[in-house]
Amino acid sequence: MQVFLQTLIGGVTFGAVYALVAMGFSIVYRTMGLVNFAHGNVVMIGAYAASNLYMFAKLPFPVAVAVAIAVTALIGLVIERVLRPLENKDFDLMLIGTIGFGTVLEAGAIRVFGATGHAVPSPVATAPLDVAGIKIPTYSLLVIAVAAAATVLLGLFLQRTKRGAAMQAVAMDHEAATAVGIHVGRSNAMAFAIGAGLAALAGGLIGPMLYVNPTMGGSLGIKGFAAAIFGGFGSMRGAIAGGMAFGLLDSFAAGHFQEYSELVTFLVFAAIVMVRPTGIFGETTVNRA
Amino acid sequence: MSTLIVEGLSVHYGGVRAARDVSFTVEPGQSLGIIGANGAGKTSTLKAVMGLAPRQARRIAFGEHDLLRAPAHTLVRHGIGYVPEGRHVFPGLSVEKNLLLGAYTGDWKRTPIGEVYDLFPVLGEMRHRLAGALSGGQQQMLAIGRALMCRPRVMLLDEPSMGLSPILVEEIVTGLKRLNADGLSILLVEQNAKLTFDVTSACLVMENGEIAATGTSAALRVDPQVRRIYLGL
Amino acid sequence: MKRLILLIAAAVAAWLLPYGLGGYAIHVVDVAIIFAVLGIGLGLAMGVAGQINLAQIAFFGVGAYAVAILTTRAGLGFWTAAALALLAAVLVGLLVGLPALRMQSHYLGIVTLGLALAFVNWITNATVAGRAEGISDIPVPPLFGVDLASEYLFYYVELVVFALALAFALFLTHSPLGRRLRAMRDDDLAAGALGAEIPLLRMTAFVLSGLYGGIAGVLYAGLIRFVAPETFSIANMFLLLAMVIIGGRRSILGCVVGAVALSLVREALLDVSAYAQLGYGSVVVLVVVFAPTGLAGLPARLRRRRAAGARAALGSFQPYDRVHDREDGRTDGQARDRVGADAVADAGVGSGADLLEVDGVTMRFKGLTALDQVSLTITAGEIRGVVGPNGSGKTTLFNVVSGFYTPTSGRVLFRGREVTGAAPYRLSLLGVARTFQNLRLFGDLTVRENILVGLDRTRTRWVWRYLALPWSVLGFERVLRVRADELIDRFGLRDFADAAPRALPYGIQRRIEMARAMAMTPALLLLDEPAAGLNGEEVRQLAAIVRSIRDSGVTVVVIEHNMGLVMSLCDRVTVLSGGKVIADGAPADVAVQPDVVAAYLGDSMSAPSRTAAEPADEPAPESAAGAATESATESATDSAAEEAAR
Asked: Residue B203, by phi and psi: left (phi above 0), alpha (psi -120 to 50) or beta?
């Protein structure tokens, strides 16, 4: 029981980060119909930027993460601008284009930060909370709280602001959105920037939990993407549910299958997606391609 | 007041010619109809005016604004409201949010939303529902209401009767007549000739992408040629 | 001839190559050839068949690891292990391909990528696979006393294998199977409607890429005699992807060129590998944006720019023989059947019998009822028009009949057999052909190839011949080509037989789609708005073509908005409105029914006077015109409609 709860907490913590990554995927997919395979690498850049600013520039952790978000948002804008000619044209080409971008980001990180990577000390130095014999790391709580806050803020932005409503409108019907006066290109660019910002937040948060290295983007991106599909691609609820589900799957697989956790996770993922390609909150956007 | 002028408009999709050399004007306060069978090029014409379809034209202007050079998303700022074919509301947003987006270019604190609820009371009752959950007729009213939110001077409507029952069509007709009486210019594209004759004062009949006949609605109503074009007899 | 000389020159150059290379250089070349084989496999799956397969590197790993494990752990001989390794790679290909049955595009990409990660995870941790250290003592492959430990001699083994692999891949892409794979890539719906078994074809693509991955893996194991997880990492998967994209994924030769070129570049930049990665990542982005067809597509792009200007003309249509003079044509048809397949539809259905019966079909989408209890019967040998306002359910009806939708309720019978919800390819092989409202031609296939896809009536299980009897495939292809030429001439498409359809004017594309549908030798032809976008002259030609098709014994159902065409062409007309059949009968009768007038014009005022009806082929019968008087009330019109329908 105790092991179960302990695993649960670990799963929820990672799930919160996966949910952030998945939300980044989803917001870009929803507004542009583009699957950004470079997203994982943007997470990696975010992790590097945040950890370097925190460890070497000695910025406070929140400030470091904020700056990292700004940096990656800029990268997101560049990716969007370069791939814009392919929008709504050839889906597969766009996908390959983003893979190319991912490669560039990864190689760039190796150039700038070196191939080895570094560990990041936890910014919260207090001892884990002890609740009925279960140890809850304070940093886990922080991660969950920040992820929840980001989710709520994003929700408020989409629900309450004019820009947010416009972005959703573009996702639903870009022609009608144009007719009411929304600049679709600008809205897409903003979606991309927000997606990349979420990636940096995820990266900054996961830094102290993992070893920050240039190749971390591959597996994080794939897991976040898988989480997005898991929940139902393009849906925000789906991203959160999928992220949590994937985090739990991941940590229980790690508990039961040790080093084979990744193998089990992806086999289970493949099986579930086979049975239900539209995910938990299935939207019928699967055939958009 | 501004006049909508279209001269020598042609629309081509790839190799397909959807409309050829179409010209018309909509005077301030006038209501003009474009009727014709499916595939006659009516929707393409309207979309091309809005800049949503590939077009060539000698002139498309609204008042002093040259619409040929204006990007599609700026038309609403010049006072042109557009109700697309098949309604195209934003299904995942609430009715109220849909209406507010109609006033995207303006200030959300001073919108004519009350007037829209006044015109179509059912929208007021359903303001918190998702637009996708409305019936076809309600969605059509929503689409019209959304176009009204930018306080347009001319309104372009594309097949507002499509898929609606006669009673709902009647309700739409009443709404459109009222708007026109209040001074809004209307350009109505319809397959439903009766509705169009009821709402408009003059009409163009399109066939195979070209204007086949023009005249006052009263005259066209009894013109056998209209029926011939429609029914192929 | 020129090709043969080039081929011989290439072979001689390849044979002599090792004489000019040092020890390390030959190693680099050996590795490049392995990547080329791998690239061909990825090209077949992704470029030819359009399956986003990001697990190619895992197929490679399965081949190499299987050899390593079977030789070192199970003590098998190298070649026995190699054979089993190929089998394993094919099986893994099959398994990884399973998700393709349910999803495509990025979904498939992420699932295959996940499975590739799962494989890497397994080899890094399994004791049997040597964990992170890998397996190092793979034996030298024995070959009649030739010492294959020498990388020079191994080069020749690789060369032979590579040549065979390349030849087979080229043969495949230019064969009927390859054409179907490409058709599926361009438009899987249309390919299905033309008789291609999409699920099996997708699996075939994965089996092929598994096979090529396995071959590359075996060669790798034999060359390096050491395997470790690093070689099969995701980074190398992306490198492989870059090779195929830069080379040109749709051309097998392009994939080879890309693979060899990038292998060499990578070798040259080994000391600055981060820059190399940066470089090819950027090149992938640039290629995707500016030259999506890759290096292989450049010559064609340049040629197109030069060739623009010469405008070919659409030839005239040569009518089919009328059905009763067709008896002597049958022998020819039987010969086709013998060569072709078990499944060519028997075109002989007596005129007057019920060919298609739609019985109480209802089709609902998420609360929207597109078809509501629609029943209609199509008699063999007629031309039936289906008309109605926008959104009245006409195309939905076609989609139900051609197997794209399974109706919510109701039945569809074709020649008395229930075919409700049968897969499109099955209906196509039974003799139902269709065209599409928005033209679904295979844009990257030539006009001739589009027609050839329609002519190919084989089932996919026929593919065993590609390995066992390749010459019979060639013979079949020759017969198909002769028949394609006949069709091209009949439909007047000679001048652009080898052009890509997307570059042609719309009217010609419509004609091509009709020719492609007729290539299926259907019993029932469904035309969805064949006159849309055509000018007056083209519409007249269309009417002549459709009549000739009917006279040749094919039953035609046509959805059309051009009422003039419907009136003059169709024997009977069915009118749909709001998903219901509101009228059914001879065109002139139907057009004056108040319900129909109301559906079209929005009112139920009088139909046109009889003088206005004169231009039609036959004047409207007295009774129908009389029934539709101005005073007709709603209920009266209903009964009149019912009467006319009987």
From this structure: beta
CA end-to-end span of chain A: 45
DSSP line for C153-181: HHHHHHHHHHHHHHHHHHHHHTSHHHHHH
Tokens 């190699």 appear where?
Answer: C82
Rounded-to-integer distance, Cα B172 and Cα B168, Å: 6
Look-up: residue for tokens 């040092």? C22
> Residue C286 falls within a domain, yes or no?
no
> Please, which pLDDT band fits residue C165 given cuts at 50, 70 and 90?
very high
The kind and range of the H/E element at A192 are: helix A184-206
Tell me the chain A residues in contact with residue C502 when contact means C-beta distances shorter than 8 Å: none
Residue type, C71: T
* Chain A positions in Cβ-Cβ contact with residue C234 (cut-off 8 Å): 218
Nearest residue on chain A to C274, judged by CA atoms? A107
3-state secondary structure C116-154: HHHHHHHHHHCHHHCHHHCECCCCCCEECCEECCCHHHH
Residue to mutate among B227, B228, B229, B230, with most C CBs inside 10 A, is B227
Helix H or strand E segment including A218: helix A216-231
Q: Which of A100, A107, A226 sits opposite C285 (nearest CB)?
A: A100
Contact yes or no for C601 and B14 at CB 8 A: no
- How crowded is residue B71: how many other Cβ atoms within 10 Å of its Cβ? 10
Handedness of CA C606, C610, C611, C612 (dihedral sign): positive
Mean pLDDT of A8-37: 86
C628 lies in some domain: no
Domains and CATH numbers, chain A: 2-118+129-288 (1.10.3470)
Number of other residues whose CB lies within 10 A of the CB of residue C205:
25
Q: How far apart are the first and last CA of chain B?
A: 42
Q: Do B73 and A172 touch (CB under 8 A)?
A: no
What are B160-186's pLDDT values in tens digits? 887 677 778 888 888 899 999 999 999
- Which pair of structure tokens corresponds to residue C278? 């940066």
d(CA B233, CA C611): 10
Alpha-carbon distance of B143 to B95, in angstroms, equals 10
Q: Report the 10 Å Cβ neighbour count for A270.
A: 21
Enter the tokens of residue B79.
């006072």
- What is each CA distance from A252 to A16, A137, C535, in whole angstroms? 15, 18, 66
Q: Taking 90 as the threshold, does the pLDDT of residue C205 lie above it?
A: yes
Strand partners, B51: none
Distance CA A177, CA C166 (A): 50
User: Of C217, C233, C249, which one is at a domain's C-terminal end?
Assistant: C233
Q: Say which range, B141-155, C103-117, C347-361, C368-382, has the weakest mean pLDDT.
A: C347-361
Which of the listed residues C190, C206, C233 is the one where a domain comes to its end?
Answer: C233
* Boundaries of domain holding C40: 26-233
Query: Which domains can be identified in chain B, with CATH numbers?
Result: 1-79+187-233 (3.40.50.300)
pLDDT on residue C332: 43
For residue C488, the domain's CATH number is 3.40.50.300
Give the pairing of strands B16-26 and B31-35. Answer: unpaired
Q: Residue C306 — pLDDT band, cuts 50, 70, 90? A: low
Residue C125 lies in a domain: yes
Q: Tell me if C511 is assigned to some domain.
A: yes
Residue B177 distance to chain A (closest CA, Å): 23
Residue C45 corresponds to which tokens in the numbers above? 């799956």
Q: Which of A162, A168, A178 minimises the CB distance to B93?
A: A168
Rounded CA separation C153/C464 (Å): 33
Phi, psi torsion values for B184, nearest 5 degrees: -80, 130
Beta bridge partners of C576: C581
- Count how many domains chain C has: 2
Per-residue CA distances from A16 to A60, A149, A158, B219, C291 (Å): 22, 11, 20, 69, 40
